[in-house]
Amino acid sequence: MTGNHKDTSISRRRALVVTGGTVAAGGLAVAGYQSAFADEATTTATTDATASASATASESSGTCVLMSSVTEGPYYLDNALVRKDITEGKSGVPLTLRITVQDTTESCAPVAGAAVEIWHCDAWGYYSGYTTANPGGSAPAESEDGSTANDNTYLRGYQIANANGVVKFETIFPGWYTPRTCHIHLKVHTGGQKEDGTYEGGKVNYTGQLFFPDDAAQEIFTLEPYSQHSGSYTTLDNDMVYDGGGASSGLLTLKPVHKKDVSKGYRGFITLGIDPDAENTGAGSGGGGTPPSGEPPADAPTDSASASSSASS
């Protein structure tokens, strides 16, 4: 991945038109996305509903259960774009993420129109907006990844739930950093609207994190580019945020695209039970801990991130 690195001092900081598509980066990502997302173009409303029912059945421990809210962490930025594909060319094992939002106060009715926002680190443990923060262990500098990703927006995005309360994201399997296990952050917003490519107004009903089974994460981390980040990985049992509650605590159900070749990607499913009348921004709440050292670049937005800089990510 780092072998084809060129002078990115200008191109990596150039504003990208990220809402229109993704720049492919490396054979792993290209081949993986073709396999993982091949069925997207032909998906119909009927198939969507069937898949939603199947996913709900496999996640029964998290269905119609009010999810546990946790901290938003120190790496939240209020600049995510409304888009399905959030990769921006970042290399890694493809992950299709399907999230169903349900109203636990109304017989598990879908929360149509809910805005689900996610953000997570790249394969080496770096977050957009904080690309100089040390992920712990030994990893190449984020600038060596060879992609043209925008340093303030990669691996962040919103999707608006359909009539079934479902959103889908195309991303990569996150990496890790000390002292956390592999995870994805998310917020569920209601009452706002899409404006200027992002989501404005309304309120945050739920702030949480999604987690990955240890066996899947550890197998992924033996592959490129993840394997270039060495060090001590934190398992679920030792994580400071995950409380062991399974799906109701954010543990994803994962299905490999190809059972014999996990580099082709995974599909992840979860049902989020929320209270649409509640408000939980997650700023400063949940588990504590010291984030990796390092400062955000001078051009990174810092308003929301500064408010939660002492929280665990």
Rounded to the nearest angstrom, the distance between the terminal CA atoms is 26 Å
The overall pLDDT, averaged over residues, is 79
Order of helices and strands: HHEEEEEEEHEEH
Number of strands: 9
Q: Roughly what fraction of the amino acids lie in strands?
A: 15-25%
Percentage of helical residues? 10-25%
**Number of helical segments?**
4
Structural class by sheet pairing and helices: alpha+beta
List low-pLDDT spans. Answer: 1-62, 285-290, 295-312
Shape: globular
Radius of gyration: 18 Å
Largest sheet: 5 strands, mixed
Summarize the entry for a quick read:
The chain is α+β, with helices and mostly antiparallel strands. It has helices at residues 26-36, 45-58, 214-220, 303-307, and strands at 94-103, 109-110, 115-119, 156-160, 166-172, 183-195, 198-211, 253-256, 266-274. The protein is built from four helices and nine strands, in the order ααβββββββαββα.
Task: Describe the overall structure.
With 313 residues, this protein is of the alpha+beta class. It has helices at residues 26-36, 45-58, 214-220, 303-307; strands spanning 94-103, 109-110, 115-119, 156-160, 166-172, 183-195, 198-211, 253-256, 266-274. Strands 1, 2, 5, 8 and 9 form a 5-stranded mixed β-sheet that branches. A 4-stranded antiparallel β-sheet has the order 4-3-6-7, with no helix packed on it. The longest helix is centred in the N-terminal third of the chain and has 14 residues, at 45-58. It is globular, with a radius of gyration of 18 Å. The protein starts with 25 loop residues before the first helix and ends in a 6-residue tail after the last helix. Mean pLDDT is 79; it is low at 1-62, 285-290 and 295-312.
